[in-house]
Amino acid sequence: MNEFGLIERFVACFDVAPSPAGPGDDCAVLPAQGPTCVTTDALVEDVHFTRATFSFEDIGHKALAVNLSDLAAMGARPTWFTVALGLPPDVGARELVRVGRGMSALARRHGAKLIGGNVTRSPQLTLTLTVCGALEGLPLLRSGAQPGDLIFVSGPLGEAAAGLAVTNPALRRAQRRPSPHLAFAARARPWVHAAIDVSDGLAQDLQHVCKASQVGAELDSSKVPVSARLLRAVGPRRALSFALRGGEDYVLLVTAPARHRERLTALGALEVGVISARAGLRMDGARLTGPLGFTHR
Amino acid sequence: MNEFGLIERFVACFDVAPSPAGPGDDCAVLPAQGPTCVTTDALVEDVHFTRATFSFEDIGHKALAVNLSDLAAMGARPTWFTVALGLPPDVGARELVRVGRGMSALARRHGAKLIGGNVTRSPQLTLTLTVCGALEGLPLLRSGAQPGDLIFVSGPLGEAAAGLAVTNPALRRAQRRPSPHLAFAARARPWVHAAIDVSDGLAQDLQHVCKASQVGAELDSSKVPVSARLLRAVGPRRALSFALRGGEDYVLLVTAPARHRERLTALGALEVGVISARAGLRMDGARLTGPLGFTHR
User: How much is the pTM?
Assistant: First the structure.
């Protein structure tokens, strides 16, 4: 099947608008939009996934999920996305449709519309998505954290990284099927000063917030949330390490004034520390040193 | 140098707005926009270019040029773009800055602003861009061609494909450094019924127009424009073949009512045939058969 046939089969997995609002012309044509957020992120075979551990549906799901997580971190509501596919010779229509199904199920759940894309040959399977969201009100920025803000995360940490290291079905699933925390972001945003999604590990992503906000942070190791199943699988010391320095949890990290603690806790936010005026990242009073988390290269 | 250092060096090649309007947060934040066009296209090493024939500057130029050409085909004016980079271990800061320079020179010329991107490891150098343009008035669609319309192209054809096949510096340059025909599109658009950019060869891209418009087309081989240097390099028979079935010329194909012939000719458009009510693609009265052009897989 040639390029055009493959594109047709992939697009058929999605609820698309007729061209030119959807795929089919040189560009997609969009009506006027209010303020928007745009992000782009790629999944590359044997870098971000292997076919031994991911189904084609998982690959489609995760490629969109990691991008939606970036929208969540800004407080934006998903609107449209494009998909550029790099396909090796052994990925044909059948496999591509499985990728499409994994992706479209998640797209539908969050109201994101496929508007266009591209297919090319490639030595390994590659998915590069660009995703756009509507912004109602001000964006949640990395640069908004203030000394005295409490630091919260929107879910337990470390499972996705542990899922790469140990054989445990639930942890593996956390690796393959992250859920973008869009609903949490939509409800928490009125009370929040700063936000980022935890894609590279708590320590590294918190450091991004600290740098952008010109502040420091103090973490309390006893508060860093790890799930019971992660504790059972790897013990407390490794669980904390995965939570701090692992990556790909795709929960949100937010900072908010202490007076909003109860509101945020009621939304499921878990307090892990406090923003300080003193530069640097500390845990239980000691400076965090060494590589902070995952880098993509 | 790690991911974050590489991103900084690449971004420094461009005129970017401070975050969050430019790169640096989870998403770029854009103000309200009027109607827009969006496209995405990728260049993959050893599929679309080799390092033996392309400089890093060429690679950066071409990755943006092929996307800008899609905007030209819609009659849109470039506004912003994102760049997702897949970098093999031997592409470091020095090479990346060369890619950035090639890309930013073209971006500046056409008023396109880098707003964000992504860097990941990859076995081979890959650039996936998503580009957006502002649309003033109606878009130029593939589906607008009408029987009796004349078919024009905005420049000579076949050089880029010939540049892959023969050793000739000028033809090689046409391969490496396509110019998006944005200025032509902006001036021609009031008179045009349909448009597409010629990325896959005249025959195949004309067929896309015919399918979308539910019409046929008659080409006149004596009018298909080929440059004197292409004729000198490969002779008339191969020149016509490269023009028809080669690809990557990135000129525009437009159709327009015969009464606008002089206006379009004055803008540099070159007449190559006529749209017919009868389905199918014909040249000099005979049906065009065989593979029509380049497919990307």
Answer: 0.95
